[in-house]
């Protein structure tokens, strides 16, 4: 994934025509489009290949199964045209390793969820977040997912993983996080969904976030 605008669109719309229209509109303003269960369940896995015409595709399936099942899932998703898959880290080293190995073979990326961006992540996930970040670094995953809603946690996670791994951060906009604060905390890319795709002018919304990012670089 090229690091140009440092913005990733989370495209959680349900209609494939709308997904294509928004992707076309934001081309050049985003470095990647993150596609997850809402869009894929509503419009089929083939939407990944269609959107890949506009940007790199990160499949946010938060894969969390035994190693063999994780591999079967990642194979399907890479075959569909995704450049990267988001995988949960809490399932442990073997479940993660099989995904990282497959991605390496295919020249693709795995991003590992550490601590999620919503308030409930404090119930259980935060305690495991740093251990998961260390595991992602040990296994040389491409990067981790860390919360834009808690820039102080992004800083902590950056200290653990060093500069070899990337950080991608959801939680900007609708969940209250700031793109500028998250970039200054050490994230490589911010992930923004509703603030862009629910806007009357998604291209302008994306452009404004990119300007906010550029102002602090
Ligand atoms: P919004 O509309 O809130 O969309 O800007 C955020 C997008 O990011 C996903 N999300 C996460 N994915 N770890 C992840 O891997 C997280 O901590 C996390 N928090 C939010 C969410 O599903 C939506 O697509």
UniProtKB/TrEMBL annotation:
Any single GO CC term annotated in Swiss-Prot or TrEMBL for this entry: cytosol
GO molecular-function term, one example from the UniProt record: orotidine-5'-phosphate decarboxylase activity
Key word Lyase present: yes
Gene Ontology biological process terms from the UniProt entry: 'de novo' pyrimidine nucleobase biosynthetic process; 'de novo' UMP biosynthetic process
Chain positions recorded as substrate binding sites: 12, 34, 60-69, 117, 170-180, 193-194
UniProt key word Lyase: yes
Pathway: Pyrimidine metabolism; UMP biosynthesis via de novo pathway; UMP from orotate: step 2/2
Broad class of enzyme this protein falls into: lyase
Active site: 60 (for ompdecase activity), 62 (proton donor), 62 (for ompdecase activity), 65 (for ompdecase activity)
Orotidine 5'-phosphate decarboxylase domain: residues covered: 6-209
Catalysis: reaction(s): orotidine 5'-phosphate + H(+) = UMP + CO2
Keyword terms, alphabetized: Decarboxylase, Lyase, Pyrimidine biosynthesis
EC nos: 4.1.1.23
PROSITE patterns xrefs: OMPDECASE (PS00156)
A Pfam family reported for this protein in Swiss-Prot or TrEMBL: OMPdecase
Protein task: Catalyzes the decarboxylation of orotidine 5'-monophosphate (OMP) to uridine 5'-monophosphate (UMP).
Family from the record: Belongs to the OMP decarboxylase family. Type 1 subfamily.
Quaternary structure annotation from Swiss-Prot or TrEMBL: Homodimer.
Protein's name according to its UniProt entry: Orotidine 5'-phosphate decarboxylase
Lineage: Archaea, Methanobacteriati, Methanobacteriota, Stenosarchaea group, Methanomicrobia
Underlying gene: pyrF
């Amino acid at each position: 994934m090229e690091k140009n605008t440092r913005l990733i669109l989370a495209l959680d719309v349900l209609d494939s025509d709308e997904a294509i229209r928004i992707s076309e509109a934001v081309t050049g303003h985003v470095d990647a489009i993150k596609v997850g269960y809402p869009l894929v369940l509503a419009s089929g896995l083939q939407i990944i290949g269609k959107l890949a015409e506009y940007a790199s595709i990160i499949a946010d399936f938060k894969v969390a199964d035994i190693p063999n099942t994780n591999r079967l899932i990642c194979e399907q998703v890479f075959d569909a045209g995704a450049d990267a898959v988001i995988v949960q880290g809490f399932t442990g080293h073997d479940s993660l390793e099989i995904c990282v190995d497959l991605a390496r073979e295919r020249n693709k990326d795995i991003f590992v969820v550490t601590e999620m961006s919503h308030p409930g992540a404090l119930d259980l996930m935060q305690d495991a977040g740093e251990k998961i970040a260390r595991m992602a670094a040990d296994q040389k995953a491409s990067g981790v997912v860390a919360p834009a809603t808690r820039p102080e946690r992004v800083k902590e996670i950056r200290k653990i993983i060093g500069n070899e791994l990337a950080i991608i951060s959801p939680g900007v906009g609708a969940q209250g996080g700031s793109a500028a604060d998250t970039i200054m905390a050490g994230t490589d890319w911010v992930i923004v969904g509703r603030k862009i795709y629910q806007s009357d002018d998604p291209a302008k919304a994306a452009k404004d976030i990119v300007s906010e990012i550029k102002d602090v670089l």
